[in-house]
Amino acid sequence: MSAIPARTAAPRVGFVSLGCPKALVDSERILSQLKVEGYELVQRYDDADVVVVNTCGFIDAAVEESLEAIGEAIAENGKVIVTGCLGKREEVIRQAHPGVLSISGPQDYASVMRAVHTALPPRHDPFIDLVPRRASEDEIGVKLTPRHYAYLKISEGCNHRCSFCIIPSMRGDLVSRPVDEVLREAERLVRGGVRELLVVSQDTSAYGVDLRYAEREWRGRRYETRMRALCEGLAELGVWTRLHYVYPYPHVDRIIPLMAEGRLLPYLDIPFQHASPRILRLMKRPGAVERTLERIRGWRAGCPELTIRSTFIVGFPGESEAEFEELLAFLDEAQLDRVGAFAYSPVEGAGANALPDPVPEALKQERLARFMERQAAISAARLEARVGSLQRCLVDAIDGELAIARSPADAPEIDGLVQIQDGAAAGLQPGQFVEVRIMGSDEHDLYGEVAR
């Protein structure tokens, strides 16, 4: 009788994921493919046979963080494969770390897998390899978020050419996923326990324009590959759906009724970037500020519960004191709920680098501090107005006696929290929805108790 061959240990891969939620989705796809091919995913450098680093390269600070992560992986492990946005600037990586095994750009999953196969061939297991691997209908792959929420990427790339941004040079022009493909993925995620879908892209408002809004079928109904139709489909799944990276185009008006009806979270993440028409033109951004304010007023009239979060750039080249004051006046008028801001930082390859009259660094920081002080008062007042209300919240974690949750106004990682004081005593668990009576607030978070 011939001897049965011993099974060999699975090859082990470590993984470092940096950057935005869109990069995180790329990481999930790579990790899922590694798992399908029999690789073991490990948490420690010294447990890994090879390490993959998914990088970010959007701004200088992100480039520095990515290079540091690559250097740490080389020092701790020695065998490193690099992918992601910074991979589009191979010479930067090679200059800092000539010993990396392979470099590829974002969404280039095939190149990553080829590099892993070369550095660490999959082990042959005669008991498994003879049986084709088949994904079940509910297979959702590896997730890097908690079980109860997930990022749903609906497109790649961007057709805009903002002067401060190099994303199109890294991720290319807009490529939308067909609507039925997105809805099927969302359905699988919900079956797998996801209670909140976070829709991400470079420009959610432009979804489907490259496909000429082609119709596809899902659950026996025809849907256009278009933002409104996508939202209608996602609303059928009965979970929270949150929209990110939305441009303030007129057709955004058409999704506000879905929010007012409770079918879509009343939340818009819109990167306005500035409020001076001249600076917006220099940025190559939509510049009709009065129409933007009118649209915000219209959205809130149609859906009073709407939360608007945004990001802004302070100290853009040529920004005068008067134009900065226009930005502060916009904050006062728009009364945005959540705001992030950055002092302008040159990005290699961006058109804005050639603009005249750069703002001195000290003045950028002074303006940033004034901006954040103004917005902090607005955010605190808007949160205080919610004291005494009932909020349906989604529990993220239990911390001692507290349950840490989020309201419809709070996206994970970037917005505030709802601290439920009696959450542990009430037996709450992560992924559970609960009605919370809001008892207090500060400039970031809400505090409450389980509504009896």
From TrEMBL:
Residues engaged in binding [4Fe-4S] cluster 2: 158, 162, 165
Chain segments annotated as coiled-coil in the UniProt record: none
Gene Ontology CC: one annotated term: ribosome
Keyword Iron attributed: yes
EC identifiers of the protein: 2.8.4.4
Entry's localization field: Cytoplasm
Molecular-function GO term, any one: protein methylthiotransferase activity
Domain MTTase N-terminal stretches: 11-121
Swiss-Prot/TrEMBL keywords: 4Fe-4S, Cytoplasm, Iron, Iron-sulfur, Metal-binding, Ribonucleoprotein, Ribosomal protein, S-adenosyl-L-methionine, Transferase
Ligand binding ([4Fe-4S] cluster 1): 20, 56, 85
Essential cofactor(s): [4Fe-4S] cluster
Domain TRAM span(s) in chain numbering: 384-452
InterPro entries: Elp3/MiaA/NifB-like_rSAM, Methylthiotransferase, Methylthiotransferase_CS, Methylthiotransferase_N, Methylthiotransferase_N_sf, NA-bd_OB-fold, Ribosomal_uS12_MeSTrfase_RimO, rSAM
Cofactor remark: Binds 2 [4Fe-4S] clusters. One cluster is coordinated with 3 cysteines and an exchangeable S-adenosyl-L-methionine.
Catalytic activity: L-aspartate(89)-[ribosomal protein uS12]-hydrogen + (sulfur carrier)-SH + AH2 + 2 S-adenosyl-L-methionine = 3-methylsulfanyl-L-aspartate(89)-[ribosomal protein uS12]-hydrogen + (sulfur carrier)-H + 5'-deoxyadenosine + L-methionine + A + S-adenosyl-L-homocysteine + 2 H(+)
UniProt xrefs under SUPFAM superfamilies: Radical SAM enzymes
Main subcellular location of this protein, as a coarse class: cytoplasm
Class of the enzyme per the UniProt entry, highest EC level: transferase
Residue ranges of domain Radical SAM core in the record: 144-381
Role played: Catalyzes the methylthiolation of an aspartic acid residue of ribosomal protein uS12.
Family, similarity comment: Belongs to the methylthiotransferase family. RimO subfamily.
PANTHER family: RIBOSOMAL PROTEIN S12 METHYLTHIOTRANSFERASE RIMO, RIBOSOMAL PROTEIN US12 METHYLTHIOTRANSFERASE RIMO
Protein name: Ribosomal protein uS12 methylthiotransferase RimO
Organism from which the protein derives: Luteimonas endophytica
Upper classification of the organism: Bacteria, Pseudomonadati, Pseudomonadota, Gammaproteobacteria, Lysobacterales
Recorded name of the encoding gene: rimO
